[in-house]
Recover the amino acids of this structure.
C-alpha cells in the first residue's frame, strides 16, 4: 500500500479520520473543507459506490493539484445522476461528451492546456467499466500509448448499470446480469479470461497504474495523489459496488468491497512503468463464499443447490490473484472456512 | 504570395496561418497531405504553440478536438469518407456542445464498395449534424474558406466543415495566393470561447437534457446556426477588404440575369460547368449557373434572390455528387423547400431535374454536360437521371436480378 | 461566460434537489452504555476517561484522572486492587484481549500523586454534619463525595491508621502503603475530620450529634470453623495474620504453613507466609481450581511464588506439626463430599481463610434496623431501617470488594445528600448496553494488550515490594487507545467520509456530527461503517 500506515490506536489510519491524528495524517475526506467535487443533491441510488468513489478520488486529486483540475466524464451512471438539467452536482470544471470517447476528450483537454502553457491545470478522465473496458477502450489505449498527460479513473461496478445491468467486459464469471441470466447449466456470466484493464494498462508501460476500492479510502486517496506526481498517462481502477446491480444492501457497499479485497477476488496493487511496486496485503482473509453471499447476483450459486463446482472455480481465481500478487503476508490466516 | 501549390498544401498553409493550438490527425485518403504538412510545421517548430496528436481513429480525432476546443483551444482536424462516418457520433456531439472546431472534409465516396475517389456522399451524410458546411470550388477558395471558417465558427460557437473535393482539389496543383500572417491576424481575432473549462470559473458542460428542454435546445442551435446566413456575407465583405479577393459566401451566380436554364451545383465541378455554360452560351443557349458555397445552413433566401424565377428562369438542373438512395437528390430537396416559400416560384413553378453525377470519382466531362443540358433545354431531361450511366449494364443486372 | 442553455450548468446547482425525500429510514446518533461502565461497581465512566487519556500528556491524563475522581477518589489504589469486572466485560476481549483498563487507571492514579493534582471543594457549605463510621474504602469514598457536596464530614475509625481492609487486609506487595497514604491524605486534605482509635457503639445516639450517619465498619472478623485440634496445634485466622504483618507484629508461622480456604484472602495469606520465611505454603481447598473464588491472577501469582495447592481436601484435624487431610470429591451438584480417605500434611501452622464477618456492633439495638445474611439490611439507596442511618461496604450483603465499597460510598453520599436536602437522589436512565455485535471491528488496529511488568519471583518471596509494576507514559497511552469506544462516537470521521451523499455534517472537534436530513437518502452506510456502533437506523416518520 502506498501510504504510511499510522499505527495510532484506536483506529490508526484505518478510519476516515480520527481526532488523535495530525492534519497531515488525516484523509482528505475527513477534512471539513474537502472540495466535495461531487456535491449534495446528486441522484445516485442509495449506497452508490460510484458516487462515493468519484468523490474520494476527485477530492484527492483536487487536493493534489490545489484545485486545478478539469474532469472529463464518459456517459454512464456517474454522468446521468450528476448532471440532469437543470442541476449539476459537480464543483469542478467538468465535460461530458460521449460514452466511448472520454479518454480522447481528456487528451484533447490536456493538449489544449499544454498549448496554452497551462500545465498547472491537470486533467482527469473518468467513466464506468463499460465506458472504459469496452466502448472506450480504443480511446483509452490510444491515450496510454501516446502517454498523454491524463489520469484516467475507471469506476468499476462490473456491468452496464445505467442501462439496466447488462454484462460488460468487466463482469466477473458466474455473475447474473440482464444479458447473462442465471439460467441453464452454466448460469450467469461465462468464465473467460476477463478483460483486466489494469494489467493491460501496465502493458502500455505508462508511468502509473493502480487498483483501489471504496473500502480503503486512505489507499485510494494516496493512489490518486501519487498519480498526480507523474506526468503522462496514468490509470486508476476503482472497484465500486453497485447495490442495484449486485443485489447487495445499500448499507453494505463498503463492506462488500472490503470482502472483495479480503477474499482475493479483487487484488489491490500499484505499478510504475509497467512493474508492480506495491500491493495491499490481505488483513483478515475470507473465502470467496463470504464475498459471494452478500450479493443476489450470485444467489444461484447457493440455491436451490450449492454450486460447489462454480464456487470452487471462483475460489481458484482468487487464490491465483493472491499468489500472483503476493497478497497474503505470512501469518494472515483464513478467518472463515470457504 | 502567389504560388503554384497543391490544394492540400494550400489548405495547410491557411490553417497554419490561423494559428491553431491543437491539431489531431488520423490518416485517410485523400486528406492526408493536409495533416502531413501541418504535422511537419508543428514538428519542425514553425507552427507553435501547437499540439499535434496522432490519434488512433477518426472517432478519437473528433473527440480530442472536442476536448481541446472545450478547453479553449483553436482546434482543427481533417477527414474524409469512412473516417467522417466513423467519427459521426462525435461530429454531432461537437455541434451539440457548440464547439467551434474547423474540419476539412476531403470529399470521397462511401463504401461498400470501397472507393477512394471523390463524390459528396460523405459530407452530405452529415448535413444535419449541426455543422456549417462550406464547399470549395477551387484550391484558392478552399484556402480562403478555411480562413473564414475559423472566423465564422468562433463568432457563432458552431463548428464548420470545409468540404473540398478529394483529389480534384486536394491533390491538384493550382496557382493560389497565400496570404501573409499579418493579413490573417488582422482578419481573424484571437479565439474568445463562449464557454471554457476553467478551474477559475468552473461549469459543467454536457449535461443531460430531458423532454422538458430538449426541443428548446435544438431550436436554439438551429437559430444559432442560421445566424451564419447573416454573418457570412459580412465576413466575405471584410475578407475582401483585407485580402483583396472576393471569395466564399452563401451562393455565387454566373450569368443568371438572362438564364432560362440554371444549373445548380456545389464544389469543384462548378469549374467544368462554367466552361460548358460558356460554350453553350456561345451557341446561344440562355443558361446560367448557381454555385452553392454555403450548404448548411441552407441559404434559401439567397438562392431565391439569386435566381430570377420566371423572369426568365423556368428550368433548374441540380447536379448532385451524392444522392439519397430510394429518393433522389439531396440538394434538390433543399432547393424545392427554398422555392416553396418564394412568390415568384409559386407563380411560375420551374421545372426541376436532378442529375446525379461523378459518383465515386467518375469524371464529369464537358461533353456529357453539354448533352445533358441540351436535353434539359429541350425539356427531355427526366426528373432524376444519372449522368453517363451505363444503362445497358444496369439493365442486364436488373434482369439478372429479377431472374434470380 | 455566456453559457449555452441547458447544456452547460452552474456548478453545485444540484443542491436544489433535496434527496432526503427518498428516505424510508433515518440514521440517528446514539449513546450506548459501554460494557465496562456497566460492569464497574464504583460507577466509573471508564470509556470517558480512557477517551480523555487518549490525548496523553497534553492535559489528557489530568482530565482523565478528574473524570475518574468524579466517581472514585482512590484511582491509584483501585488501579492495583480492583478485580476488574470492567475488563471481564470489555468487548475488546472478543477481538483480541480486553483493554488494560486497570493498568491505565493505576497509571493515572500514580501520575496524580506524582503531579500533586487535587480536587477542589467548591460547593456551598450546607451546614450539615455527617458522621462516617469506618475509614475503609467505603467510608473514605462517602466522606469524599459528601465533602464535595458541601457537607461537613467526620470519620471515626477504631484503628490507629486509616484505610480499613485496604491497609489491614491487603498485603503491601499488592498495595504499597505510600500509595494508599497519599490517596487518603488527599481526601482528608479536602477538610474531612478523621478521628482514629475511636470506637463507635450507640448508632442511634450519634444522630443527636450528626445530621446523618454512614456506617461502613467493614467485615474484618475472621470466620472460624470447628476443627478438632490438639493442644500443640497452631491455628490462626488470615485476617489476624495480615493485620499483624501490617502492625509489624507478624505471628510466628513456622517453616511449613497450611492455609485453609480458596478465596483471595487465602492467596494473600499463603503469599504473605512465603514472605515471612515459610519454605512451604500450601493452600488446602475443598473443591477444584475452577471452583475457587480467588481470582485467576491471584492464583497465578501465588503459584509463581511457590505456593502449592491441595485441591479437594479438607482439614479434618490439626495437631502440632501435622494436619490430617480428608480427600473430597464433588457430587453431581458440584458440592464437595467426604470420601473417608485421609492423608497427612506436615504443617507448623494452619491459617484459616474461610471468610470474614461484618462488625455489626454499632448498629445492634438501633430501632428499625434489621439484619440478614450476616449484614445490615438497607434500601436501594443504602438507608437502613432507621432514618438518617445509612450503611454500605462489606457490612451490607453482597459482593465484598474494594471497588464495590467505593461504589457504595458514592451512592450513600448521594442518598445522604438527597435525604439531608429533603429530596430524593436522581437516577439517570441507563442507556442500552453496547453489544459487541454492533461494532465494526475492521477499523480497529490490531493491538495486543500491554503486559505490565512483574517483579521476578525470586525477589518477590523475600520482600513485600509491589509485585506488579505500572505502565509508563507510552504504554499507558497505547493501552488507553485500545479502547473501542463501544456505543459512543469518538469522532473517527467515518460517517462523514463514507456518506455517498455528503449528508453528514462535521461539527468540529468535540462537537461530533449531524445528519443533513435534507439530503440523506437513508442508505445506512454510516451505520454499517461506524466502528463503535454509535448510529442506528430508525423508521422514517411518515
Amino acid at each position: 500500500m502506498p501510504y504510511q500506515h499510522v499505527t495510532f490506536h484506536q483506529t490508526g489510519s484505518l478510519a476516515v479520520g480520527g481526532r488523535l491524528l495530525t492534519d497531515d495524517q488525516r484523509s482528505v475526506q475527513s477534512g471539513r473543507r474537502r472540495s466535495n467535487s461531487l456535491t449534495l443533491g446528486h441522484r445516485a441510488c442509495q449506497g452508490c459506490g460510484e458516487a462515493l468513489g468519484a468523490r474520494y478520488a476527485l477530492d484527492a486529486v483536487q487536493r493534489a493539484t490545489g484545485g486545478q483540475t478539469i474532469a472529463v466524464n464518459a456517459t454512464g451512471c456517474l454522468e446521468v445522476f450528476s448532471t440532469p438539467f437543470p442541476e449539476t452536482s459537480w464543483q469542478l470544471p467538468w465535460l461530458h461528451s460521449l460514452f466511448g470517447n472520454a479518454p480522447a476528450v481528456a487528451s484533447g483537454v490536456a493538449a489544449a492546456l499544454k498549448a496554452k502553457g497551462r500545465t498547472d491545470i491537470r486533467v482527469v478522465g473518468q467513466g464506468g467499466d463499460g465506458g472504459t473496458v469496452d466502448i472506450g477502450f480504443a480511446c483509452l489505449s490510444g491515450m496510454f500509448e501516446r502517454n498523454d498527460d491524463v489520469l484516467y479513473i475507471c469506476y468499476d461496478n462490473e456491468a452496464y448499470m445505467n442501462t439496466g445491468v447488462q454484462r460488460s467486459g468487466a463482469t466477473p464469471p458466474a455473475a447474473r446480469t440482464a444479458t447473462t441470466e442465471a439460467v441453464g447449466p452454466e448460469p450467469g456470466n461465462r468464465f473467460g479470461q476477463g478483460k483486466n484493464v489494469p494489467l493491460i494498462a501496465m502493458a502500455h508501460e505508462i508511468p502509473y497504474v493502480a487498483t483501489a476500492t471504496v473500502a480503503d479510502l486512505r489507499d485510494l486517496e494516496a493512489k490518486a495523489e501519487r498519480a498526480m506526481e507523474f506526468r503522462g498517462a496514468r490509470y486508476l481502477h476503482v472497484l465500486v459496488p453497485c447495490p442495484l446491480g449486485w443485489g447487495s444492501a445499500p448499507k453494505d457497499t463498503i463492506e462488500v468491497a472490503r470482502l472483495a479485497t479480503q477474499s482475493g477476488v479483487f487484488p489491490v496493487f500499484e505499478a510504475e512503468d509497467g512493474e508492480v511496486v506495491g500491493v495491499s496485503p490481505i488483513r483478515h482473509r475470507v473465502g470467496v463464499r463470504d464475498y459471494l453471499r452478500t450479493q443476489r447476483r450470485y444467489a444461484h450459486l447457493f440455491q436451490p443447490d450449492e454450486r460447489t463446482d462454480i464456487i470452487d472455480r471462483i475460489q481458484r481465481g482468487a487464490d491465483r490473484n493472491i499468489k500472483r500478487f503476493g497478497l497474503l503476508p505470512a501469518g494472515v490466516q483464513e478467518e472463515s472456512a470457504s | 504570395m502567389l504560388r503554384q501549390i497543391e490544394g492540400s498544401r494550400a489548405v495547410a498553409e491557411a490553417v497554419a496561418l490561423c494559428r491553431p493550438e491543437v491539431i489531431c490527425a488520423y490518416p485517410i485518403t485523400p486528406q492526408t497531405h493536409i495533416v502531413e504538412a501541418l504535422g511537419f510545421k508543428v514538428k519542425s517548430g514553425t507552427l507553435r504553440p501547437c499540439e499535434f496528436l496522432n490519434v488512433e481513429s477518426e472517432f478519437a480525432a473528433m473527440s480530442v478536438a472536442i476536448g481541446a476546443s472545450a478547453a479553449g483551444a483553436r482546434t482543427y482536424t481533417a477527414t474524409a469518407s469512412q473516417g467522417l462516418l466513423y467519427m459521426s457520433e462525435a461530429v454531432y456531439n461537437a455541434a451539440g456542445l457548440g464547439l467551434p472546431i474547423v474540419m476539412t472534409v476531403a470529399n470521397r465516396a462511401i463504401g461498400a464498395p470501397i472507393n477512394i475517389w471523390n463524390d459528396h456522399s460523405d459530407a452530405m451524410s452529415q448535413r444535419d449534424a449541426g455543422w456549417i458546411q462550406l464547399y470549395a470550388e477551387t484550391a484558392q477558395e478552399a484556402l480562403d474558406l478555411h480562413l473564414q471558417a475559423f472566423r465564422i465558427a468562433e463568432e457563432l460557437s458552431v463548428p464548420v466543415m470545409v468540404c473540398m473535393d478529394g483529389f480534384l482539389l486536394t491533390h491538384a496543383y493550382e496557382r493560389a495566393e497565400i496570404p501573409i500572417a499579418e493579413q490573417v491576424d488582422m482578419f481573424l481575432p484571437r479565439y474568445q470561447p463562449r464557454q471554457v473549462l476553467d478551474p477559475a470559473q468552473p461549469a459543467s458542460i454536457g449535461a443531460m437534457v430531458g423532454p422538458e428542454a430538449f426541443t428548446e435546445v435544438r431550436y436554439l442551435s438551429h437559430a444559432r446556426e442560421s445566424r451564419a446566413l447573416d454573418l457570412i456575407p459580412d465576413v466575405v465583405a471584410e475578407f475582401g477588404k483585407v485580402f483583396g479577393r472576393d471569395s466564399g459566401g452563401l451562393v455565387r451566380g454566373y450569368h443568371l440575369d438572362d438564364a432560362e436554364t440554371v444549373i445548380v451545383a456545389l464544389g469543384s465541378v462548378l469549374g467544368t460547368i462554367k466552361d460548358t455554360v460558356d460554350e453553350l452560351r456561345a451557341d446561344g443557349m440562355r443558361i446560367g449557373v448557381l454555385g452553392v458555397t454555403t450548404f448548411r445552413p441552407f441559404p434559401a433566401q439567397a438562392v431565391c434572390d439569386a435566381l430570377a424565377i420566371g423572369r426568365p428562369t423556368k428550368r433548374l438542373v441540380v447536379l448532385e455528387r451524392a444522392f439519397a438512395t430510394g429518393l433522389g437528390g439531396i440538394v434538390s430537396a433543399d432547393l424545392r423547400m427554398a422555392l416553396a416559400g418564394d412568390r415568384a416560384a409559386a407563380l411560375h413553378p420551374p421545372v426541376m431535374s436532378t442529375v446525379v453525377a461523378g459518383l465515386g470519382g467518375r469524371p464529369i466531362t464537358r461533353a456529357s454536360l453539354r448533352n445533358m443540358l441540351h436535353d434539359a433545354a429541350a425539356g427531355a431531361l427526366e426528373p432524376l437521371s444519372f449522368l453517363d450511366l451505363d444503362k445497358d449494364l444496369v439493365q442486364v443486372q436488373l434482369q439478372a436480378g429479377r431472374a434470380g | 461566460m455566456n453559457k449555452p442553455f441547458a447544456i452547460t450548468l452552474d456548478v453545485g446547482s444540484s443542491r436544489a434537489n433535496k434527496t432526503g425525500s427518498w428516505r424510508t429510514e433515518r440514521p440517528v446518533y446514539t449513546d450506548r452504555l459501554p460494557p465496562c461502565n456497566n460492569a464497574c461497581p464504583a460507577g466509573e465512566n471508564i470509556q470517558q476517561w480512557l477517551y480523555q487519556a487518549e490525548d496523553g500528556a497534553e492535559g489528557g491524563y489530568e482530565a482523565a484522572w478528574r473524570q475518574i475522581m468524579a466517581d472514585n477518589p482512590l484511582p491509584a489504589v483501585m488501579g492495583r486492587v480492583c478485580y476488574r469486572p470492567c475488563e471481564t466485560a470489555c468487548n475488546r476481549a472478543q477481538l483480541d484481549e480486553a483493554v488494560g483498563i486497570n493498568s491505565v487507571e493505576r497509571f493515572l492514579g500514580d501520575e496524580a500523586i506524582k503531579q500533586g493534582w487535587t480536587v477542589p471543594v467548591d460547593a456551598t457549605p450546607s451546614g450539615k454534619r455527617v458522621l462516617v463510621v469506618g475509614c475503609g474504602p467505603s467510608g473514605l469514598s462517602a466522606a469524599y463525595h459528601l465533602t464535595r457536596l458541601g457537607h461537613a464530614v467526620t470519620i471515626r475509625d477504631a484503628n490507629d491508621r486509616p484505610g480499613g481492609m485496604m491497609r489491614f487486609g491487603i498485603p503491601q506487595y499488592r498495595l504499597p502503603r505510600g500509595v494508599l497514604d497519599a490517596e487518603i491524605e488527599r481526601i482528608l486534605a479536602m477538610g474531612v475530620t478523621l478521628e482514629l482509635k475511636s470506637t463507635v457503639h450507640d448508632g442511634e445516639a450519634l444522630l443527636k450529634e450528626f445530621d446523618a450517619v454512614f456506617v461502613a465498619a467493614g467485615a474484618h472478623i475472621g470466620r472460624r470453623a470447628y476443627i478438632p485440634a490438639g493442644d500443640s496445634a497452631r491455628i490462626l485466622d488470615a485476617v489476624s495474620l495480615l493485620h499483624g504483618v501490617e502492625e509489624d507484629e507478624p505471628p510466628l508461622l513456622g517453616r511449613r504453613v497450611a492455609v485453609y480456604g480458596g478465596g483471595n484472602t487465602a492467596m494473600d495469606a499463603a503469599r504473605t507466609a512465603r514472605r515471612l520465611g515459610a519454605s512451604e505454603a500450601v493452600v488446602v481447598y475443598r473443591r477444584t481450581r475452577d471452583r475457587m473464588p480467588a481470582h485467576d491472577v491471584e492464583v497465578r501469582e501465588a503459584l509463581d511464588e511457590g505456593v502449592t495447592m491441595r485441591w479437594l481436601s479438607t482439614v479434618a484435624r490439626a495437631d502440632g506439626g501435622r494436619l490430617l487431610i480428608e480427600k473430597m470429591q464433588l457430587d453431581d451438584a458440584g458440592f464437595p463430599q467426604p470420601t473417608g480417605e485421609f492423608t497427612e500434611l506436615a504443617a507448623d501452622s494452619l491459617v484459616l481463610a474461610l471468610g470474614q464477618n461484618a462488625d455489626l456492633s454499632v448498629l445492634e439495638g438501633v430501632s428499625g434496623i434489621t439484619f440478614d445474611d450476616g449484614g445490615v439490611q438497607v434500601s436501594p439507596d443504602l438507608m437502613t431501617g432507621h432514618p438518617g442511618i445509612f450503611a454500605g461496604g462489606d457490612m451490607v450483603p453482597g459482593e465484598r470488594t474494594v471497588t464495590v465499597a467505593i461504589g457504595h460510598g458514592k451512592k450513600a453520599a448521594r442518598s445522604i445528600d438527597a435525604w439531608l436536602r429533603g429530596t430524593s437522589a436522581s437516577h439517570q436512565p441507563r442507556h442500552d448496553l453496547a453489544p459487541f455485535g454492533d461494532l465494526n471491528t475492521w477499523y480497529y488496529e490490531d493491538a495486543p494488550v500491554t503486559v505490565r511488568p512483574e517483579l521476578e519471583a525470586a525477589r518477590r518471596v523475600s520482600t513485600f515490594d509491589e509485585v506488579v509494576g505500572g505502565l509508563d507514559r507510552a504504554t499507558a497511552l497505547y493501552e488507553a487507545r485500545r479502547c473501542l469506544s463501544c456505543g459512543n462516537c469518538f469522532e473517527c470521521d467515518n460517517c462523514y467520509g463514507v456518506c455517498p451523499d455528503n449528508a453528514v455534517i462535521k461539527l468540529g472537534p468535540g462537537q461530533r456530527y449531524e445528519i443533513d436530513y435534507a439530503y440523506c437518502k437513508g442508505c445506512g452506510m454510516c451505520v454499517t461503517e461506524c466502528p463503535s456502533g454509535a448510529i442506528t437506523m430508525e423508521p422514517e416518520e411518515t
Observations:
- Chain C touches chain B at residues 1-11 (CB under 8 Å).
- Chain C has a mean pLDDT of 92.
